[in-house]
Amino acid sequence: MLSSDILELVLERDGIDFTPGDCVAISHADGTSRPYSVSSSVDDETLHFVIRRMPGGIVSEWIAERKAGDEIEISPPFGWFRPSRSGKKDDPSVFVATGTGIAPFLSALRSHHEMAPKCCLYGVRKKSDAVEIDYLQKRCPIRLCVSGEASPPHHRGRVTDLLKEIPMSPETHYYLCGLDAMIDEVSTWLEQHGVHFTRVHREVFFNA
Q1: Cβ atoms within 10 A of the Cβ of 187, count?
Q2: 53 and 151 in one domain?
Q3: How far apart are CA 176 and CA 181, in angstroms?
Q4: Residue 161, CB half-sphere, CA atoms under 13 Å: how many?
Q5: Residues 169, 121: one domain?
Q6: Would you place residue 90 in the very low, low, confident or very high pLDDT band (cuts 50, 70, 90)?
């Protein structure tokens, strides 16, 4: 457990190949499955996942009860969200994440050490829910937004409060991951400010 709500699941790699941004479906013993994004580097010997333990959640509650050595069934990696394909000077990127939506961005940054997004907005409800914030601060300009409590020096409120701080340019790719309400609001704001929809990449983790 990384906090009262957030856990990290670590599995044997067992030769599995993936691309940063990929998910796997993790199956409960009864066959129910949920998709979770890989948060580890493509070079790690293990697979890492950052998961919110949802009250009453069939799969997340079950995962939280696993012990070292337990077997877990997962699908082959899949997906189309690709934050690692840009981030260089000639193909800049901006990351916006809420909650465990930071996972694919962690995978991209851990896998590609030359990657340097122009900025990252990261929203959580509690400061303790922020994952790898020290690592993220070393890798890119980041603004942590804490909506549920005061946590100086971080912004108190939502990531959408800070959209005017996002670097704007026609060549930038904007990657949005997390709550659907955030993704819809940020997408609309970007398009209203002249960003072509082909430059806005979305991965919904939770539905409001």
Answers
A1: 18
A2: no
A3: 11
A4: 12
A5: yes
A6: low
